[in-house]
Amino acid sequence: MSVLVNKAWVLARMYEPDVTIVDCRFMLGQPDAGRISYEESHIPGAVFLDLEKDLSSSVSEHGGRHPLPDTGQLAAKLGKVGINRETRVIAYDDQGGLYASRLWWLLSYMGHETVFVMNEGFSVWKDAGYPISKEQPVRVPSTFTAEVHPEMLVNLEDVRQAMKDPSVVILDSRESSRYLGLNETIDHTAGHIPGAKNKFWKGVLQDNGEWKSLDELKEYYKDVPKDHEIIVYCGSGVSACPNVLALTELGYPDVRLYAGSWSDWISYSENPIATGEE
């Protein structure tokens, strides 16, 4: 079954006892905006997980702007809101699946197999007249037992080696101007990892903000060979996740996330930097 589900599918299952809906809304530069939006209104029964407080660890010299959370700590937080390995998790946001995809990736990395991303944001849900609530649900705590899949992840040294390996494709998920080094709006150094191809994560979306069909996604990634290892990065390991999700939906067998991404790469002064087209 597809990871991407529509709002009608969510509506039909939202009250089933093994389902937990997770609100992942977030706004870069406004760290409290997601929580505030959740408290104003959300899908009934949904719990809230924050990108920076729950789905990332503290920033340090290396590791990027949104380092992966400690799996033990995240497992405890998941258990606290009633999520265990048997729970069907439905994630949503209001940013094209950007932050919901981060939760999908993290749960997949920790061995959870039934995670879905709602293919329309909260605003579409609300505007369609679907039910909303301000009530914060009372959840029965559970135990989430992580079974980490390290093969889904690469580190800095893996990327350094991949640059020399023609059988590995490196994809940069940032918008073109940042990839080219023309307009770096977030990190202190512009450019990209040498050899990387640019696949802006919003390329997975239609003009109306919904995800493209599988045929449209296949067209978008037609220049990415399926028989190669694929390493995906972005600025901080978040917007790479929609690309990872899309490639996984298309059946690419070996897709890995460079979680530290560009903000980790440039924290090492000896790392090479490229600008312009590849």
Structure description:
This protein has 278 residues and is α/β, with parallel strands linked by helices. It folds into 2 domains: 124 residues, Rhodanese-like domain (Oxidized Rhodanese, domain 1, 3-Layer(aba) Sandwich); 116 residues, Oxidized Rhodanese, domain 1 (3-Layer(aba) Sandwich). It is 28% helix and 13% strand. It is built from 10 helices and 10 strands. Helix 9 links the parallel strand 9 and strand 10. The protein is globular. The mean pLDDT is 97.
Number of helices: 10
Strand content is 5-15%
The best one-word shape is: globular
* Name of the CATH superfamily of the largest domain: Rhodanese-like domain
What features would you highlight for this structure?
Oxidized Rhodanese, domain 1, five-stranded parallel beta sheet, 278 residues, alpha/beta, 10 helices, single chain
In summary, what is this structure?
This protein has 278 residues and is an alpha/beta fold. It has helices at residues 7-13, 33-40, 71-80, 98-109, 122-127, 156-162, 176-180, 214-220, 240-249, 261-265, and strands at 4-5, 19-23, 47-48, 88-92, 115-118, 153-154, 168-172, 197-198, 229-233, 255-258.
Secondary structure elements and pairings:
Layout: E1 4-5, H1 7-13, E2 19-23, H2 33-40, E3 47-48, H3 71-80, E4 88-92, H4 98-109, E5 115-118, H5 122-127, E6 153-154, H6 156-162, E7 168-172, H7 176-180, E8 197-198, H8 214-220, E9 229-233, H9 240-249, E10 255-258, H10 261-265
Parallel strand pairs: 1-5, 2-3, 2-4, 4-5, 6-10, 7-8, 7-9, 9-10
Helix pairs in contact: 4-9
